[in-house]
Amino acid sequence: MESWHKDILKKEMIDTRNPEKLDSFYTQLCEIHKKSFPDMRPRQFLLNALGYINSTLHRDPFFPESDELIELLKQYANSNSMWYQGWDVLNKRRMIVEEINIAERVRELTNQLHKASIAYYKYDNPIMTDKHYDELYDELEKLENESGIVLSDSPTHYVQGYILDELKKVKHTKPMLSAKKTKDSNEIKAFLKDYDWYCSYKMDGLTLVVRYNENGEFVQGITRGTNGIIGEDVTEQCRFIKNLPMKIPCNQPLELRGECVVSYDEFNRINKEVSEPFKHPRGLAGGTLRTLDLNIVRDRNLAFIVFELVSPTFTHKLEGLEVLDKMGFETVQRCKPKSKETGVEDCVEAMQPEFCKYPVDGLIFELDNTELSKSLGATSHHENCRMALKWQDDTYPTTLKYVDWTMGKFGTLTPTAVFEPIEIDGSIVERASLHNISVMKDLGVKSSGQTVYVYKSNMIIPQIDSVEPINKEEKLIPDKCPICGQSTKIVKDNNSEVLVCTNDNCKGKLLGKLSYTVSRDALNVDGLSEATIKKFINLGWLNSIRDIYYLSDHENEMKALDGFGKKSVDKLLLSIEKSRKTSLERFLYSLSIPLLGKSASMMIADSVDYDFDTFIDEMTIKGAEYFRCLPGIGDALISSLNTYWKNHCSDILQLANEFTFETQKSIMSETTNELENKTFVITGSVNHYQNRDTLKADIEAHGGKVVGSVSSKVNYLINNDINSTSSKNKKAKSLNIPIISEDEFLSMLNN
């Protein structure tokens, strides 16, 4: 090396390594850290920054001198901090975040004001003073302005529903790929190797891309579509997703991916209000988001769960999700491994499906490092940085014996596969619903003797997974009603084929209606099973709901019937008398009015203070129009109520004479916390309840919780076969968890 080169280099080294320059360097370093990444620990900030310089800027961070290194750090901040350009705004917002969880407070205020508006404008029953409302409104408006977080149903930015003409097709900027799937945890372990990773729920809904502009304003929502290349523009529908912010604290374009879902509670609520229940929350979420009627979207509580921040990117994906949490988004539940040896097993144990209020169909194991994930590439189907662990639904082969047809309260005949008994999860299964003719055709159910594969959905409900083809074909769809013998016909209902009886006076329709009437959510008459109702109909004792309350006229005849004795008859008649004390809500629900579910019955009852006479007065004077202001009550339900009232007004008044209606005060005073902090597992058949779902509902109504699998966190296993050798019984015994029968459970409630 020439001597002059050496001299220059020496001089530069002296200049750049001047200790006086260190103050300036560390001041600038501290400024970048504080203003760009205030929530990062020093070592986290430095490691991330140096890693970015090396992997993205392709510079070895060992060589740059202090001035150049500062410039490289600023590049890192510009690329990875959403707030780098708005430091003053950030500092102002961080002061708020330090005092309260701003996103949660915005959500809380939005909900409070929404409830107050409904009470004031729709029920004419204010729940707070105007002054208090204004104070909350002002607080919300201030927080929205300062934080930049505005939810879709904010009273400061309310959007009225309307009807769209069509859904436009949109091409994704890059294909939305899936995750490689497996049911083998060992394959997951091999994939993860020694990488840093995390686990999250695989949400079971409709995948969405959501975009915001440089001002933090929501601008677009697009469905994944069938192939991940072309989706549908659902921007306007997204404006009614309750937990999706319309404004966020961000000053550069933002794109993220997530899942549009409905909770199990919302799924159950909606199914009680519609004439044809949805089969799965996934279908409800997808159908709602893709509807052209925005009033429907507004009245259903869709949720958007974020699982990926697409851009801008962070060095670590978890950092991006944590930032989104602070912006007001609801991000996917996730778990970090505590041990490399048992990390997968620990996460699977901690992320069981019953721990999530939304439907999930597996777990996603994701590499955390963004650059590493990109370097692994993708196939035409999936990205190589993640893998899905699907929950195993074991299927069991058995032989189809025949198809049984049962009738609902509106005359629809539902097919049920009856097969050779098999044991699944500790209980004997011999029946599974086929739902409708369309499902039968799709599965290929053609003849007795066919091999069918059965599983338990969510370890509870028996379902047909598939069938083996067979050469012969029987006439499994009857052209005559199996109950009355009159003609049947196949009709279209919500894009599905269903079988109906054409006879308006079919006893099967009466059976379906009365079974519904005496159910737990309606009049709650214990002891009137479907078989018993059918027997009484055939004897001519039951021709209407009112006849239930005159069964005592047949007491002696009843005691002489096979299977009936003095004790069972006395118990049935006592239950009937007990049901005479009811609420307006239960009474309306019991009438089987088309489209009137439990939730709508409750809202109608509440709007007239649970007073039957007031309800009659309003229906007589104004008709169902009086209830139009209630949420979820639209033209179809109003028309149905008016038609039913016109045809059955006198029947309603006569039937009401059999009841004493509870006041709102007595209803509100009922205790529901007997089972608080108690967790149950239900298995096997039930005797007192209509099915296990109604038992589950009763547990939850009394403050308890029901899960699908036995673990150390469970307090009781309910199984009428206490001595069963099923896997659940064995596990409960090994964990010293009490196994109780239905009778013991009911005694627990009554004590």
Structural description of this entry:
The protein is 40% helix and 20% strand. With 751 residues, the protein is of the alpha+beta class. The chain has five domains: 89-151, Orthogonal Bundle (Helix Hairpins), CATH 1.10.287; 169-390, 2-Layer Sandwich (D-amino Acid Aminotransferase, Chain A, domain 1), CATH 3.30.470; 396-496, OB fold (Dihydrolipoamide Acetyltransferase, E2P); 507-666, DNA polymerase, domain 1 (Orthogonal Bundle); 679-750, Rossmann fold, CATH 3.40.50. The strands form seven sheets. Strands 15, 16, 17, 18, 19, 20 and 21 form a seven-stranded antiparallel beta sheet that branches. Strand 26, helix 27 (727-734) and strand 27 (739-740) form a beta-alpha-beta unit. Helix 6 packs antiparallel against helix 7. The longest helix has 22 residues, at 635-656. The chain is globular, with a radius of gyration of 31 Å. The protein starts with a helix and ends with a helix. Residues 1-15 and 82-100 have low confidence and may be disordered.
* Whole-number count of domains: 5
- Fourth-level CATH superfamily of the largest domain: DNA ligase/mRNA capping enzyme
- From the 3D structure, determine the CATH topology of the largest domain: D-amino Acid Aminotransferase, Chain A, domain 1
Ranges with pLDDT <50 over ≥5 residues?
1-15, 82-100
Radius of gyration: 31 Å
Shape: globular
Characterize the biggest β-sheet: 7 strands, antiparallel
**Strand runs, count:** 27
CATH class of the largest domain: Alpha Beta
Mean pLDDT level: 82
Query: Any idea what the CATH architecture of the largest domain is?
Result: 2-Layer Sandwich
Q: What class, by secondary structure content? A: alpha+beta
Beta-strand fraction estimate: 15-25%
Distance between the termini: 96 Å
The proportion of residues forming helix, as a percent range, comes to 25-40%
How many helices? The count is 28
